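Feature request, filed as a ticket because there's no other form

It would be nice if the structure record came with a short human-readable summary line next to the tokens. Right now we just get the raw output. Example of a typical job, pasted below so the devs can see what we mean:
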Amino acid sequence: MKLTVTGDINSFYVQTLCMIFFPGEKFVENQEITEYTPIMEVSVTNSENVSSAKATLTYKGKTAQAERTVEFAPERTKQRTAKIAAGSAVLAVCTELLGYRPSWGMLTGVRPSKVAMEMLLNGNSKAKVRKILNNDYYVIPKKAALATDIARREQKIIGKPDIKDCSIYISIPFCPSRCSYCSFVSYTTPKLLSLIPAYLDKLCPELEELLKTIKELELNLKTIYIGGGTPTILTAEQLKRLLSLINDHVDVSTLEEFTLEGGRPDTITEEKLSVAKDYGITRISVNPQSLNEQVIKSIGRSHSIEDFYRAYDIAAKSGIKVINVDLIAGLPGDNFKYFSATFDKIIALEPQNITVHTFCVKKAADILAQNQNVYSIKGGDAGKCVDYSQLRAQAAGYLPYYMYRQKNTVGNYENVGFAQEGTEGLYNVYMMEEVHSILAVGAGAVTKLVEYYPANIASTKISRYFNPKYPYEYLDNYSNLETINAIKEFYSSHL
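Raw output as currently delivered:
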């Protein structure tokens, strides 16, 4: 796609707007232009009282143009006003030429509920927030209601964060096989899986140093999340080693939540979950993504439907308090009939949490090499599946409690977590809404030191520290000294 942006507007923001309508497009200079190349020009000018935007789109021999003007208002920054002006202009020209109106309007960010939460914290009523989302951001009513409802529930979960609050993320970036849609840094071949013992030898000292630092600084450790990858790819003894180290330094009974991302049903055993329960795990995921064998095989997962039911039964009998089940709407080969049947079967099991993702095409995913036509602007049955999951879940007593969105999601739909009352996945909310620091260890992990300002969320400051992305880089003389020093310096200046 050829994109030209001028004026007082961030070009990356305009790119994300364009990708709603042209998923998978790349923005490169000096590209060859054909009749199928979308050409977008966007300009923004700010005067004393208003922000004005003009957008022109040429595609397949047709051209559309739109101009929008938005007045500055006390409740939003000039930068946000410019974004609204640009967004409404881009939305207008793309809708005219493509005949598609995205349900989330011009909202492009990962956290649509964050916009709603800011307005609620500024004293707006629930009804007014919905109206603003609908009128200013062109969000359709049912999505505006979803974002507002989730923001209200997140407010209740978040409460009043303290600067000393923190959570830990532990990365186990290994899987038994690689899903065709996956872009996480996860390792699957026998040669790379053989790195696990050495990986633990490196991970455990890094984690121990972090736990000692948390204790030294007298921080409030609220949740621990062991993710990946597939952490239950560890043997029972390896899992015991990791969890016992945590128990040596943390009274896990004081944690609000302790999660083990089981994920793959074919890695879950009774012995592993017995170890998990004994060492304080309170939440586990068992993720089939679909209960249709054909769909599961098409995305490269190595488990069967029988494996899922076996693993779920083990989890249900383990005594672990909360079980989460992940599903994906809009998978290649899936349709409304298959998805709704899957969702009904999961509801019948009555897990405490159900998370419904919408199929997202990542640039590093294997599926792009297999099929270049996986991007879908309208999403086929995905929207119908997403709507069904939300209506069916709430009818069964589950409440939506957190939500996020990704680029290149089919139909531009959302990912939503549902929970039975009182069993919400707390780490998900703390991490997604960035209300306290996330201290991370392992390959691909990112430590986020957060200065959260509830009275003005837009002023929240975040400093990020990245561990080496790949396990072999992590094993190659990596030291977490810089991150530990940054953590100490951050808290010494705020406590």
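Something like this underneath would help us a lot:
The chain has two domains: 2-101, 165-485.
Residues 2-101 form a domain with the Double Stranded RNA Binding Domain fold (CATH 3.30.160.100).
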